[in-house]
């Protein structure tokens, strides 16, 4: 059976913007574009308390039509597997699964001012901020923190 993947031309750019966003929030980005058999993550980072964060980055997400993190159970399973394999050498690593969406700030979907949403549906933490790249481009990054957890 032939498996094909859809090409997303802005995926590398979105991953870079999301990594910049996480770095600005004191997370150390350990790897990007991590792929293992049965698992993949766009970004693997480490929080200041030692928590390993596996994140998927979604581009072109419409804020006006969605209220929760744009990730499926299958995607969460891929994230968890990638994070577990990445941290296989560390016993009892705490793994948090996050989702980030990246939208250019000049589109109609991106808001002019970022909003903070404590307690989104299901108690998820959602935060929107505008990120400016070194090249001067502006993006709205929405961070769905803690959409899932995994144990190594």
Could you describe the 3D structure shown?
- The protein is of the alpha+beta class and about 150 residues long.
- It has a single domain, classed as 3-Layer(aba) Sandwich (Trna Endonuclease, Chain: A, domain 1).
- It is about 20% helix and about 40% strand.
- The chain contains two helices and seven strands; from the N terminus they run H-E-E-E-H-E-E-E-E.
- It has a seven-stranded mixed sheet with strand order 1-2-3-4-7-6-5.
- A hairpin with a 5-residue loop joins strand 6 (about 125-130) and strand 7 (about 140-150).
- The termini are far apart.
- Mean pLDDT is about 75; it is low at about 1-5 and about 110-125.
- InterPro entries: tRNA_endonuc-like_dom_sf, UPF0102_YraN-like.
- Belongs to the UPF0102 family.
Question: What's the gist of this structure?
Answer:
The protein has 152 residues and is α+β, with helices and mostly antiparallel strands. 18% of the residues lie in helices and 39% in strands. The protein contains two helices and seven strands.
| Overall radius of gyration | 15 Å
Outline the low-pLDDT stretches.
Answer: 1-7, 110-123
CATH class: Alpha Beta
What is the string of SSEs from the N terminus onward?
HEEEHEEEE
Domain module count: 1
**Strand-pairing-aware structural class:** alpha+beta
What is the CA-CA span between the terminal residues?
A: 32 Å
Q: Name the strands of the widest sheet in spatial order.
A: 1-2-3-4-7-6-5
Count of DSSP H/I helices: 2
In percent terms, what proportion of residues is strand? 35-45%
Please name the CATH topology.
Answer: Trna Endonuclease, Chain: A, domain 1
Sheet with most strands = 7 strands, mixed
Shape estimate: globular
CATH architecture annotation: 3-Layer(aba) Sandwich
Q: Name the average pLDDT.
A: 77
Record field, number of beta strands: 7
Q: What percent of the residues sit in helical stretches (DSSP H or I)?
A: 10-25%
Family: Belongs to the UPF0102 family.
Pfam families: UPF0102
InterPro entries: tRNA_endonuc-like_dom_sf, UPF0102_YraN-like
GO molecular function, one term: nucleic acid binding
């Amino acid at each position: 059976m032939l498996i094909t993947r859809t090409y997303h031309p802005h995926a590398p750019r979105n991953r870079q913007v999301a990594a910049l966003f996480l770095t600005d929030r004191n997370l150390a980005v350990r790897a990007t574009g991590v792929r293992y058999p049965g698992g993949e993550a766009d970004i693997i980072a480490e929080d200041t308390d030692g928590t390993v964060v596996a994140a998927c980055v979604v581009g072109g997400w419409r804020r006006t039509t969605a209220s929760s993190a744009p990730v499926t159970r299958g995607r969460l399973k891929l994230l968890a597997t990638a994070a577990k394999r990445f941290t296989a050498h560390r016993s009892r690593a705490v793994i948090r699964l996050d989702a980030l969406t990246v939208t250019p700030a000049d589109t109609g979907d991106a808001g002019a001012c970022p909003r903070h949403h404590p307690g989104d549906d299901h108690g998820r933490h959602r935060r929107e901020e505008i990120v400016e790249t070194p090249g001067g481009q502006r993006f709205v990054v929405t961070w769905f923190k803690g959409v899932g957890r995994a144990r190594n």
